[in-house]
Amino acid sequence: MSEFDAIILGAGHNGLAAAVHLAARGWKVAVVEAKASAGGAVKTVELIEPGFRHDIAAMNLSMFAGSAFHQTYAGELAAHGLKFVPAPKCFASVFPDGTHLGIGTDAAANRAAIAALAPKDAESFAAMSAEFGNTAPHLFGLLGNPMPSLGSVKAVWKAWRAGGVPLLTDMLRLLLSSPRGFLDRHFDNEKLKAMMAAWGLHLDFPPDAAGGALFPYLETMTNQAFGMVIGEGGADAIIKAMTGLLKAKGGELFLNSPVASVDVSGGRAKSVTLADGRKLTARRAVISNIHPKLLFNGLVKGSALPGRFADGLETYRPGPGAMMIHLTLDDLPDWSASPELKSYAYVHIAPNLAMMNRVYDEAVSGLLPREPALVVGQPTALDPTRAPAGKHVLWVQVRVLPAEIKGDAGAEISATDWASVKEAYADRVLSIIESYAPGFRSKIRGRAVWSPLDLQAENPNLIGGDSLSGSHHLDQNFLFRPVAGYSRYKSPIDGLYMCGAATWPGAGTGAGSGFMLAKMLAG
User: Fold this and answer.
1) Going by DSSP bridges, is the β-strand pair 29-32/252-254 parallel, antiparallel, or unpaired?
2) pLDDT number for residue 1
3) What was the pLDDT predicted at 17?
4) pLDDT at position 485, please?
5) Measured at the alpha carbon of residue 349, what is the angle toward residues 343 and 353, in degrees to the nearest 5?
6) Residues facing 102 on adjacent strands
7) Rounded CA gap, 205 and 477, in Å?
8) Strands 268-274 and 279-288
9) 150-176 and 214-226 are packed helices; what angle lies between their axes, rounded to 10 degrees?
10) What's the rounded Cα separation, in Å, for the pair 51 and 66?
11) For residue 22, what are the contacts with CB-CB under 8 A and spacing of at least 6?
C-alpha cells in the first residue's frame, strides 16, 4: 500500500492544476488516470494521417492563458515546454448573403466593420469596449473565487466601492440576462447580435435562456482586448507542461490506472482501490476530477449520501451533446464572404438568433437539427506545425445535438442510433460548410467523425456528449453547481473533494476549480 497526502482522480487540467499546486506546497501527491495519457477533454492526436495533429475536443486555450493558475506558474510551465500561438483574428460569423463580421485585436477595425452595418451600433460597441476595462476586474474577481467565499464577497465589495449601486446592478443584470435581452439593450443590427450570441451555444445558452449573456459579452470583449491563443503543436501543450511540472515537484502520475473504488471508513474517504487491486492511502484528501454522477453512483463505497445531496445529484442535468468532425485538408476553406476569413481561429455558422433557438429546441426535443450551429476551427491557419507543409487540419464542432435520437428535423435520416447516423449527419454538416465555402469538399483528404456517444466513450465524463459536464443554466450555476450547499468543492463525505467542469466556475480550460480547491486545502 502506498501512502500520499492527496490522491487526485482523473488527470484533466483541473486535477493536474490541483496536483501541481499541492505538490508545490509540499504535499505528497498522486494523480491516477484511467486512460493511457493525461488530458481528459484536452488531447491532441494523429487521428487520420501521420503528421496531422487534431485537438479531440478543446482547442481554444485563452481561458488557461489568462487563468490564475497560469499566472502563478507561467515561468515554470514555459520551462516545461508550454508555448502559445496568438490569434489576432479571433472569431467571425458568416451569413447567407455572402457577408461576414469578425472580431480581432484591432479595435479600430472592429469598430469600422460594425459601423459599415450600423453606425449607431459602432458607437455602442466602442462604449462597451471602453467600459469593459472598469467592469472586467470585478467580474473576473467574482469568477475567480470559490462560491460562496470571503473572496467573492470582497469582489462584490470592491465593485461597490468602485462604482456604487449602478455598477452592481449593471453586473447583476448582465449575470441574469439572456443573450437576446442583453444584446437588444445595446444593439440594433441582427448580424452583430448573431455574431456575439453564437458564443452562448458554446455554454448551453440559446438566445432566450436567462443567464446566457455573460459568455458572449466576455468572449467578445476579451478577444478584442487580449486576442485568442491556441497551444503550439496542439492543445495538449498545456497537459505536457503540467505533467512535466508535477513530476518535477515530486508528484506521481499513474496512467492506465482506472479506479475501482473510493474507500470510506468512519465517514471519511481514506483510500483508493485501483482496478488492478493496488490500494493508495490518502492522509489528507481524495480529490475527484470525475463527473459527480460517475463518482457517487459507482465509485464511492461504504457511505450513504445525505438525501439533499443525492436528490440534487439525481436531477443534475447534462447539457445537450456535441459532435466533432476532424478533417485533413489540402487547403483551408475558401470562404466566399472574404479571403481574410482563412486567417481567423474560429468561423461560426449560426447566422441569426431564430436559427439558434430552433437548433436548441430541436436538439433538446431529441431531434437531429435540420441546420445545426457550427464552430469551424482553423488551427493550422495559426500553427502550421500541426500538419505537413502546405496541408491543414480542420476542427468542426457541431452544436447542439441530442444524446438519444428520436427523429430528424430535416426529415432525411431515418435511423435513430448514432452509430448508423453519424456519417450521414456529418455529410449534412459538410454541405453547410460547402454552401459558405464553395469547393470545400474537394479539399478534404480524410475525416474522422465523433458522435456524442463516441465522445462519451472516449471520456466518460462527457455524458451524452455534453462537453460542459452539466448545463450552465442558472439553476445549475454559481451557488447551485453541482448541488446547492456543495458548491465549495467539499463533498458530503469527509476528506473527499470535487473539482472539474461540473463544479464552479464550470466548463472551459481555465483550471479554476482545481486551483481554487488546492489553495483552500493548502492554506
Assistant:
1) parallel
2) 65
3) 98
4) 95
5) 135
6) 92
7) 12
8) antiparallel
9) 110
10) 30
11) 5, 6, 29, 518, 521, 522
How far is the C-alpha of 520 from the C-alpha of 499, rounded, in Å? 12
Q: Are 437 and 333 in contact (CB under 8 A)?
A: yes
The tens digit of pLDDT for each residue in 383-401 reads 999 999 999 999 999 999 9
CA pseudo-torsion sign 452, 457, 459, 462: positive
Q: Between β-strands 252-254 and 84-87, what pairing exists: parallel, antiparallel or unpaired?
A: unpaired
By DSSP bridging, strand 44-45 and strand 29-32 are unpaired
**What's the pLDDT at 489?**
98
Helix H, strand E, coil C: the string for 161-187 is HHHHHHHHHHHHHHHHCCHHHHHHHHC
Closest CA to 300 of 9, 4, 27: 9
Residue-wise burial string across 234-272, b where 16 or more C-beta atoms lie within 10 A, e elsewhere: bbbbbbbbbbbbbeebebbbbeebebbbbbbeeeebbbb
pLDDT bracket for residue 301 (50, 70, 90): confident
User: Three-state SS across 98-150?
Assistant: CCEEEEECCHHHHHHHHHHHCHHHHHHHHHHHHHHHHHHHHHHHHHCCCCCCH
> Above 70 in pLDDT, residue 85?
yes
Q: What's the pLDDT at 124?
A: 98
Nearest-angstrom CA–CA distance, 396 and 278? 40
Q: Could you tell me if 486 and 295 are in contact, meaning their C-beta atoms sit under 8 angstroms apart?
A: no
Residue among 371, 375, 435, 355 nearest 408 (CA): 371
**CA-based nearest residue to 398, from 365, 362, 437, 371:** 371
104-141 tens-digit pLDDT? 999 999 999 999 999 999 999 999 999 999 999 999 99
**Range from 69-83, 289-303, 334-348 carrying the lowest mean pLDDT:** 289-303
SS3 62: helix
Give the number of other Cβ atoms within 10 Å of residue 457's Cβ: 12
- In the numeric block, the cell 452592481 is attached to 168
Contact at 8 Å (CB) between 227 and 46?
no
- Say which residue the cell 467542469 belongs to: 501
Residues in Cβ contact with 308 at an 8 Å cutoff, skipping those fewer than 6 apart:
483, 484, 485
Burial of 380 (0-12, 13-18, 19+ CB in 10 A): buried
**How does DSSP assign 2-46, residue by residue?**
EEEEEEEE--SHHHHHHHHHHHHTT--EEEE-SSSSS-TT--EE-
Q: What is the pTM of this model?
A: 0.97
Q: Cβ neighbours of residue 213 under 8 Å, at least 6 residues apart? A: 174, 175, 177, 178, 179, 181, 182, 183, 200
Taking the alpha carbons at both ends of the chain, their separation in whole angstroms is 28
303 has pLDDT over 90? no
- In the predicted model, is pLDDT for residue 304 greater than 90? no
- Contacts with 262 (C-beta within 8 Å, 6 or more apart), sequence order: 9, 269, 271, 272, 286, 288, 295, 299, 300, 301, 496
DSSP string over 459-507: -TTSGGG-TTSS--SGGGSGGGSSSTT-TTSB-SSBTEEE-STTSTT-S
